[in-house]
Amino acid sequence: MITEITNVFGNAGSITFVNTFGSRLKHARTLRRLSQAQLAHACGLSQGTIGNYESGRRKNPQNVFRIAEVLQVSPAWLVLNAGPMELPPSTPLAEPPAALSNTVWPLPEIDPARIWALPLHKRQLLAQTIASMLAVLEENE
């Protein structure tokens, strides 16, 4: 009877081993079809930081909320493997990673890390302010 319960070889689906923060990060990044460099750019981090997280050389995920937001996964799942991986649809997210993959940062005078360092409510305020300013500038063309 125990062999029936523990027989994972009878499972027709694939089994993904995501036992660590690094393996969950790599799994989510791969699912989103992002390179380490693309994810790093979208988060305002270095590619080395992402690589170190994935390899386990860097253990404390200080940027987990930014990373989770870009990957559209639950921060609790990413760090603790707690709860579902996917976020509920009503959760506010950053731009979809696909939209970021082939673009150049449009504001070279402003470091993206400064924006990502802001709390979510301040980033939302900044986004609303920029959207309003763009609307005015577009009207005047």
Labels describing this entry:
2 domains; mainly alpha; single chain
Tell me what you see in this structure.
This protein is mostly helical. The protein has two domains: 2-103, 434 Repressor (Amino-terminal Domain) (Orthogonal Bundle), CATH 1.10.260; 106-141. It has nine helices and no strands. It has helices spanning 2-6, 21-31, 36-43, 47-55, 64-71, 75-80, 97-100, 112-116, 120-139. Helix 2 (21-31) crosses helix 4 (47-55), helix 3 crosses helix 4 and helix 3 crosses helix 5 (64-71). It is elongated and about 55 Å long. The termini are far apart. The model is unreliable at 1-15 and 90-102 (pLDDT under 50).
Tell me the β content: under 5%
Instruction: Give the overall average pLDDT.
Output: 75
Question: Do you know the CATH topology of the largest domain?
Answer: 434 Repressor (Amino-terminal Domain)
Q: Biggest β-sheet, characterized?
A: none
- Note the overall shape: elongated
Spans of at least 5 consecutive residues whose pLDDT stays below 50 are 1-15, 90-102
Total discrete domains: 2
CATH architecture of the largest domain: Orthogonal Bundle
**What portion of residues is helical?**
40-55%
Distance between the termini: 74 Å
Number of helical elements: 9
CATH homologous superfamily descriptor of the largest domain: lambda repressor-like DNA-binding domains
Q: Which quaternary structure do these chains form?
A: single chain
Give the C-alpha Rg: 19 Å
Order of helices and strands: HHHHHHHHH
Task: Give the secondary structure arrangement, pairings included.
Elements: H1 2-6, H2 21-31, H3 36-43, H4 47-55, H5 64-71, H6 75-80, H7 97-100, H8 112-116, H9 120-139
Helix pairs in contact: 2-4, 3-4, 3-5
